[in-house]
Amino acid sequence: MATPAQWLAGARPKTLPAAVAPVLVGTGVAQALDGFRLVPALLALVVALALQVGVNYANDHSDGKRGTDADRVGPMRLVGSGAASAQAVLVAALLAFAVAGVAGLALAAYSSWWLVAVGAVSIAAAWTYTGGPIPYGYRALGEVFVFVFFGLVAVVGTTFGQTRTVEGLAFAAAVPVGLLITAILVVNNLRDVHGDAAVGKRTLAVLLGERATRWFFTGLLVAAFVVVALIGLARPWALLGLLAAPLAVPPARTVLAGGTGPALIAALSGTGRVTLVTGVVLGLGLALS
Predict the structure, then answer these.
(1) Which of the four, 55, 69, 193, 218, has the lowest number of CB atoms within 10 Å?
(2) CA 80, CA 217: separation in Å to the nearest integer?
(3) What pTM, to 2 d.p., does this model score?
(4) What's the pLDDT score for residue 15?
């Protein structure tokens, strides 16, 4: 039986900035459009956090059953370590998805029932990342889906839940968020590249190789802040988002210097920190614009 501390570690709290940042930015866009509503914003946050925890437990369950988590560096793997059964972790994932579903229904009731379809597709995407017969995370498509669902869908959906409109500003603001969250996945997969290759998990890092993946990671960080600067041309207060740029230097330096193992765990934490701070300052800048 896993301890509460092990369950918390299995939820991978260091990935939660990937859930919070899109909601902050989407809410900032809503305020910029004079459409901010507190209750839908809070419901969107619950949905995002529950989905993130759900996908983390779902990944633990699926990878553990496939045996790809048997020898890993990084956060606690409940199934792979033997701390919890696959069935128990599956129940935890389903409970998290249920919380996301209930909050999503409440959000749809506040705004539009179209969000039910968006939520259903998001949960399906979360499960099939490493679950189901054809997991796309094993086919080098994880980064694409992360950008789409944690970037575009999360930011635009948060804004839509409050304003009931689909705006170009929301799509633009979603791009840097999506790029930073994709960078979290890239450095995570870079850390696991040799283990993934050994068990046949064909992530993008495995296909590109270490050197190209390191440059790809750095390019994502640079591109994110270039887009923030471009948004600032139309919404000058959005340039506050550039205040987070210096925080991207340490993880980029670690990755480009050839860091492995524990060094990449620190880079992963640093990338999560960059993502969260960018969400705060970019969201604030958009709200002020």
Answers:
(1) 218
(2) 27
(3) 0.94
(4) 87
How is 208-226 classified by DSSP, letter by letter?
Answer: H-HHHHHHHHHHHHHHHHH
Which among 173, 160, 188 is positioned nearest to 238, based on CA atoms?
A: 173
Quickly tell me which residue has 């990755």 as its tokens: 255
Neighbouring-strand partners of residue 139? 202
Q: Closest Cα partner for 122 from 42, 54, 178, 23?
A: 54
**106 vs 265: CA distance, rounded Å:** 36
By three-state DSSP, how is residue 202 classified? strand
Q: What is the mean pLDDT of residues 28-45?
A: 97
Read off the tokens for 210.
């270490």
- Residue 67 corresponds to which tokens in the numbers above? 């045996």
pLDDT tens for 149-207 read 999 999 999 999 999 999 999 999 999 999 999 999 999 999 999 988 888 889 999 99
Answer for the pair 14, 268: CB distance below 8 angstroms, yes or no. yes
* DSSP assigned state of 150: I
CB-CB neighbours of 210 under 10 Å: 15
| Confidence (pLDDT) at 67 | 76
In angstroms, rounded to a whole number, what is the distance separating the alpha carbons of residues 198 and 187? 18
Yes or no: say if 108 and 119 are a contact pair by the CB < 8 Å rule.
yes
Give the pLDDT confidence of 58-68 residue by residue, as tens digits.
999 988 887 77
The token pair that represents 216 in the structure block? 């790809």
Amino acid at 246: P
**How far is CA 66 from each of CA 14, 127, 131, rounded to the nearest angstrom?**
24, 15, 10
Cβ–Cβ under 8 Å, residues 54 and 93: yes
Q: Which H or E run includes 169?
A: helix 168-191
What is the token pair recorded at 66?
A: 């496939």
